[in-house]
Specification:
This is Glycine zipper domain-containing protein. The chain is mostly helical. Helices cover 71% and strands 0% of the residues.
């Protein structure tokens, strides 16, 4: 696979470019819940129809959000610039910081606002990364930097 293929987010089954299963799935789930709630006014049939329509619309929105943030590009960016970040310490390697960057951009793709994402990761980081050297207090600035960059890119791509 050449470097231009890395940017295509190929579907693992079909090989088609533009696959974003996480973003699409998150958008579909959120859309289904919203659609079901809106359709509930029409009773059970309305709720079911609303869930289906909401899932389709949400899935498309989620795919759009995921396309705005390419994980391969984000990883390459942070691998290159992490040593220039103000929170960087040579006590840690890129591999120590990488899970924080990934959590930050994935939280933004999921549509989570920063405060909610930070609170969630503050709660679970040390337990999920118990074997890692980077504890949440040191990981949080990298998480925020990745969330902020993903947010800027998302706003630039989508206009909101």
């Amino acid at each position: 696979m050449n470097s231009s293929d890395d940017k295509l987010n190929r579907d693992p089954i079909t090989g088609e470019p533009g696959a974003h299963p996480i973003g699409t799935g998150i958008g579909a789930a959120g859309g289904a819940v919203t659609g079901a709630a809106a359709g509930a006014i029409g009773g059970p049939i309305g709720a079911a129809a609303g869930a289906i329509v909401g899932a389709v619309i949400g899935g498309l929105a989620g795919k759009g959000a995921a396309e705005a943030i390419n994980p391969t590009e984000e990883d390459a960016h942070w691998r290159e610039v992490h040593v220039d970040e103000p929170y960087y310490s040579d006590e840690y390697t890129y591999d120590d910081y990488a899970p924080a960057y990934r959590a930050g951009w994935e939280a933004r793709v999921a549509g989570t606002d920063y405060d909610a994402a930070r609170a969630e990761w503050a709660r679970r980081w040390d337990a999920e990364h118990a074997d890692g050297k980077l504890k949440w207090e040191k990981a949080q600035p990298a998480f925020q930097a990745a969330w902020d960059r993903a947010n800027r890119r998302y706003v630039q791509e989508t206009g909101y």
